[in-house]
Design brief:
Layout: H1 2-20, H2 46-55
């Protein structure tokens, strides 16, 4: 009877260890800290907004979406020529 209890206890412990290894959080930020919102400096001018967009990684599919503050607006400038983003 003791042998059977030891087998069940060992199996339960092994299953617990296997399942607990699945719960890790491997979220790795971009190294500079995680940014969750667009900075206010990006809405100062069209050039500042484009400069901020150019700092973002186009292939980053693991980060959370950025949020805009209530006062944030995409700046527009009717006098200058459009600038390519690429």
């Amino acid at each position: 009877m003791k042998t059977r209890s030891k087998i069940w206890l060992t199996a339960a412990l092994a299953a617990t260890l296997i399942v607990s290894g699945c719960g890790s959080n491997d979220d790795v930020g971009n190294g500079a800290g995680s940014v969750s919102s667009v900075p206010d400096s990006a809405s100062a001018s069209p050039a500042a907004f484009i400069a901020y967009l150019m700092t973002l990684s186009p292939n980053d599919e693991s980060s959370e979406p950025l949020t805009l503050s209530d006062s944030a607006a995409v700046p527009n400038d009717e006098a200058s020529e459009p600038q390519p983003l690429v």
